[in-house]
Design goal:
With 258 residues, the protein is mostly helical. The protein has helices at 26-39, 52-59, 63-75, 97-108, 114-135, 138-154, 161-176, 181-201, 209-221, 225-257; strands at residues 79-82, 88-91.
Length: 258
Amino acid sequence: MTEPTALFQQGVEGSPIFTKVHTRRGFEYIYEQIRNAIAEGQLKPGDRLPSERDMAQIFGIARQSVREALRALEASGLVESRLGVAGGVFIRDGDPRVVSRAMTDLASLGALSPSSLLEARIILTSDIIRIACERATDDDFQKLDEDITFTEQQAKTEAGVERTAQIMEFYHILASATHNEVLVILTDSLSQIVHLRLNRAGPKPNKDIGKVRRRVLNHLRARDAEKAISEITRHLKRLEKVLLQAEKAKALELDTSS
């Protein structure tokens, strides 16, 4: 682990890692320098940054700007604050949730259209199914089976935040059956957007969701990717249609009440 004092030392080519700030929006400059240092491998997970006062001296800027930069870095999932005698601000290991938060924020701001999101889900899920048919183990199938059983039980209850979150778990387990962590991260990111939309629009629960997923699982166990893809694609398209109708009804309700 690199000691904070190492940041004062000269870099490999004789230049310091950081340079003084020459901009009015100093915290952005600090943010970019630390971010670039991480990207270039000069800072690694576990490295502790200098104190706020030391960093203010390094960058030649007020401590308030340093604090703003550190808050931005923490919100981005690049650093974490630890309390105690051995505490401080540390470069953290990668946090996959950062991708989900970024995607969800873009969707909330209207930067991602429902049609594009649906298309992405269908393409991604189709490829995941093809890979899962090749790589999934008996343990993966068992996890899917147990999740479907739980979903069938939950389908008897009213819709709610916990229930919609559990519904998204199916796609996480399915992606995990590819044994590719990147596909899991991408799947979780898209699922989180659907989770948010379900909770906002509040459509009536689909009582047949367990049956649909049971058929998908049967096709997976038979290693028949195309039938599984066909089944899940029909389901995703139906879900999107229901969601759009519920969102329009919700918007109309809000307009009427305002």
